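During data preparation, a discrete fold description was generated, as reproduced here:
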Amino acid sequence: MDFEVQQHGFTLTDLMIALAIAGLLTAIAIPSYRESVRKSKRAEGRAALMQAMQQEERFYSGHNSYIRFHSSSTDEEERKFKWFSGNSAKSSAYEIKAESCQDESIESCVQLTAMPGTYNVDLKFRDLECGDLILTSTGVKTASSTDCWN
């Protein structure tokens, strides 16, 4: 009688090939995922700027002036403005502030700036491509890159 021994399982070579493929897929997927998250948070920042500008325009119609605000505002009117981009400050990617436009008074022009990853919001968030997102009451939209407002 001959007994044949059948072996089942994976060889070390099979395991190494599978690990190499998994590593390659991970190396491709993680940067794509991070870029997708960054674009999503950037959209959150743009939406928050648009919402704050609408609030500024409503304020202007009642007071004939825009209003400055920032995260540490103490004035009752200034505190009515949301200074972060998300649902809560710590989960937000951007901190928002309002100030007068360059070489203009706050009565005639306001500039909203969304600053990524400050101490008052998610400090880990970085957007090196776009940096600060800026929106003025005159409709000017600026950032470090031209694709940031698309």
Notes: The helical segments are 12-63. Residues 12 and 18 are 10 Å apart (CA to CA).
